[in-house]
Write a structure and sequence with these properties.
alpha/beta, two-stranded parallel sheet, 9 strands, globular
């Protein structure tokens, strides 16, 4: 998937927080740069009727949605059957990065999230760019609305499903700043929707998310995602790596001192596994 076209976990996280859609991705943004695509291109949907996206991660949060879709203020809390959400999505980038939430079709599974309206052109653009995902339609019968009406909005509902799973490791941990974006969105939904609060929307988000595991870093003070502070961090790191050479680039380290979290002691930030890895520039 092209990370510049991602929302849920990328552009949303840039705010300090798959599409993320819901966890998965979005349209155009100042998030991390392009990564190699994997999997089959998403098929183009029929451009008829009203169109909705299912947000299952950071797109649950209003600020995350509106950073890419300013008109996506309103979202409907829902539970969707047949989708499994988990910690197994990743963006290959020169700069440092975490593992994000992804989702795959799975019989018997369910997860909660929100539906929000997009234009047909937005979905078409999204589909063209999200070549690492499979654009998948959600049957109306698999959607339970938690607010007001028991029927989902009239129209077609889509999400971007992962085609591969890559789980957290030392280089790509779960990071608290991203978890915060997702759970802040869940609590926001509970505050605005009594039915969602009664259904314990935030607790359900945790319960219906798989693969909670370590490494899990609390990066609230210094986000693990460089683009939170420097939107062009990956482009800058690429210039440095290509200009000074991989050997020196791999020797860039975190600074010593009390401002450095204990889990980083002894850590070298430049990586030598190849050109797809790079430096994380620690904020002052």
């Amino acid at each position: 998937m092209n990370p510049e076209c991602t929302i849920e976990r990328r552009t949303a996280m840039r705010l300090g927080g798959m599409i993320a859609l819901g966890g998965s991705s979005a349209i155009v943004g100042a998030g991390p740069p392009t990564s190699p695509s994997t999997g089959s291109p998403a098929p183009s949907p029929p451009l008829t009727g009203r169109t909705y996206l299912f947000g299952y991660g950071s797109l649950i949060q209003r600020a995350s949605r509106t950073s890419t879709w300013p008109t996506a203020e309103e979202a409907v809390p829902v539970e969707v059957r047949g989708i499994s959400r988990g910690w197994y999505d990743r963006v290959d980038t020169v700069s440092w990065g975490p593992t994000y939430l992804g989702a795959v079709p799975k019989k018997g599974a369910s997860c909660n999230g929100v539906l929000f309206s997009v234009t047909q052109q937005e979905l078409e653009d999204f589909t063209r760019r999200e070549s690492g995902y499979r654009l998948t339609r959600i049957p109306a019968g698999d959607i339970s609305v938690l607010e007001g009406s028991q029927d989902p909005p009239a129209g077609s509902v889509w999400y971007f499903a992962n085609v591969t799973k890559r789980f957290p490791n030392e280089e790509f941990p779960i990071v608290q700043s991203y978890v915060d974006v997702c759970l802040d969105g869940c609590l926001e939904i509970e505050d605005s929707c009594p039915e969602a609060r009664e259904a314990q929307f935030a607790r359900e988000f945790i319960r219906t998310t798989t693969d909670w595991r370590t490494p899990w870093f609390n990066d609230r003070i210094y986000p693990w995602r460089p683009f939170v502070h420097v939107p062009r961090a990956d482009a800058i790191d690429t210039l440095i790596r290509d200009g000074v050479g991989q050997d020196l680039f791999d020797k860039i380290t975190l600074p010593p001192g009390p401002s450095r979290p204990s889990w980083t002691h002894g850590m070298t930030i430049g990586r030598s596994e190849g050109p797809e890895r790079g430096s994380f520039l620690w904020p002052p």
